[in-house]
Amino acid sequence: MFCRSSSGQGTSAEAGSGGPTVRRQSEFNPETALSEDECKEASAFISHSSDEDAIKEKMKLTFDYHHNMVLDPMQSSDILTVFPQFKDIKGLIEQNFVLMFGEGVSGKLLKWITAFKKKVIQQCKKLPSTSDLEELLLAAESPTGDSEEGVNFGWDSDLSSIILLLYLIPPSAQGRKRPGKSGTNIEEHLREITAVAQPYLLAAGPWKSSVHQYFIVLDRHAIPCKSTSSLGAFDELFKAHFVFGTSYNIMLHNMYTFIQITVYNIDVGKVKESSRVAEIVNIVFSPVLTEDYIFSRYSVGDQLGKGGFGVVYEGRRLEDDLKVALKYVTKTEDMECIDIPDHPVPLPKEIALTFLANKGHRVPEIIRLLDWTDHPDHFIMVLECPSPCENLVEFMRRHGGSLDEYTVRQIMWQATNAAHMCCLRRVLHRDVKLENLLINRETSEVKLIDFGCGDILRMSPYRSYHGTAAYSPPEYYSRGEYCGWPATVWSLGILMFAMLCGHFPSDFDLHLLQYKRWSKPGLSKGSCHSMPELSVFTTTMTELPFSATMQANCYGSFTTVIGATTAPIYQPSPYKPRGFCHDHLVPDTPKSLLLQKFR
């Protein structure tokens, strides 16, 4: 990222048309600053932490370090790479500005309205009266009072009227211009405005009277504003020039851009957004805009695997040498994108489901999604890469083709917890199988991977199945539909059978299981009798509509799968398996039963 001036000549240290050209004395006490090595450690923490308060505190302690980087033309290109949270955490621009000039200076503009509002209204009353002017004056005079407390400074507030009145003082020689609409290719717009004037404000909403969020755009990075009011956003834009050391044009041309996220004057909840709007929003708000983002942060190594899904490569994160896996997936014409909470644009389903499965407290049995980039014809996912690890097919091959009971119990305990937490987070994995479970050869830690066959979990039945046929629920073949919870339980039962026996159950095996007559030499009675319970449960599912009560029974079946073997759970150091998140259990599920099954 290079902080260009309004003339495209570089940072504010060079000649510009205005803005912060002189380094000012910081209000920050350097005694509390960190050393360079400590700053690098802090930047690593900032990049990986999700605790906003901790990030702001670390950014405060590293202020001198990152501000010197902004002021140095040779390093200014690195500021948003070294401190990427500038693009994500609201309030960091305000915090930096306060450290530079103090609270008094920082709050001046937001308090300015009490001094100039009456003067603006007084001057505008002298203008030739029109219906538009009278409407603006009426809006500007209400609500009354000298305090801004309790006043909504949005685009439909008295403040927006004040801003519009300011445009009328004095009247232009050509008179008022008729309002109009214009459009341009978003790539062309971003390229041109980046070259001539930045940073600038970008507002998004269904229409200008209903702005949902303001962003400061700097070199195609959309940095969210802390304020949700127009005045606060303009104030933050002014401060961004000082925080990032950029020049600004004297007339502040192109300082504001509005993107309407729906068709003009049509309610957002009643129509689908146009493809043009989707393109604009995707380009501007996508967290990663180009492949250069990935390749500038990660080194790509040897190929780890290849299949119908795409190609997986090993890699390293450059900032801390963390081992990662980079998954390259080519898009097909029918590849589905879905909307998820807290993300402005639809994402490819695999990215979205992996993101949702990781949302909330960390679950060590689910592979972590570290980064991604989305493009028209492909997407790239950056995933956690445990080492040394292998999938369960390779693990079983090294152990003679099947596994003993206590090893199976250890693996099933973790696989079931992963599937359980996915369901709680409304994610149906739909492909829990040997190939999609990685096991660490040293710690026996298991991780669920590959959400490409999944879907959003719902209570209503599914009528298509995209997982592996050997794990598909029998009700799908008997009546053409299945429900997510019991299908997940069934796949876990098949997984357990395959690990214990070294093969998938045949029709005859399933027949014996249903009547509790199945057995295998060398297996305990508990193992032989647990799988019939699973079979009977799934058979019941084929005959009854799925309900909340059935969902509760699924929890019991989860524990049936895990409690199958009687051997003690093997817990290698330092990894220690964790149980279900008991606070998320449905009311119908007895905690004591779950605890008894797990322990």
Description of the structure:
- This protein has 599 residues and is of the alpha+beta class.
- The protein has three domains: 1-173 and 184-254, no CATH class; 286-385, 2-Layer Sandwich (Phosphorylase Kinase, domain 1); 390-599, Transferase(Phosphotransferase), domain 1 (Orthogonal Bundle).
- Helix content is 40%, strand content 13%.
- The chain is built from 21 helices and 16 strands.
- It has helices spanning 36-48, 52-61, 63-71, 79-82, 92-106, 108-124, 131-140, 158-166, 186-196, 230-243, 275-285, 291-297, 349-358, 392-398, 405-424, 474-479, 484-501, 507-514, 525-541, 548-562, 591-598; strands spanning 200-205, 213-218, 221-224, 256-260, 298-307, 310-317, 322-330, 337-338, 347-348, 369-374, 378-384, 389-391, 427-428, 437-440, 446-448, 455-456.
- The strands form five sheets. It has a five-stranded antiparallel sheet with strand order 5-6-7-11-10, sandwiched between helices.
- A hairpin with a 4-residue loop joins strand 6 and strand 7.
- Helix 17 (484-501) runs antiparallel to helix 19, helix 18 (507-514) crosses helix 19 (525-541) and helix 20 (548-562) packs parallel to helix 21.
- The longest helix is centred in the C-terminal third of the chain and has 20 residues, at 405-424.
- The chain is elongated and about 95 Å long.
- The model is unreliable at 1-28, 144-157, 170-183, 249-257, 261-271, 283-290 and 532-599 (pLDDT under 50).
